[in-house]
Amino acid sequence: xxxxxxxxxxxxxxxxxxxxxxxxxxxxxxxxxxxxxxxxxxxxxxxxxxxxx
Length: 53
Prior knowledge:
Mean pLDDT: 86
Number of helices: 1
Largest sheet: 2 strands, antiparallel
Helix content: 55-70%
Structural class: mainly alpha
Radius of gyration: 22 Å
Number of strands: 2
Oligomer: single chain
């Protein structure tokens, strides 16, 4: 017996509808985290190169 594609089973056996996150929201969240991360890494490498170079 197969289940419809629009539902999924959780461990308790209850069927729940699937949800879809918009791609734009995912990209925004990655940018919100990624941009400061890249900036911090850049400054760390710049400061470390001044110490060792």
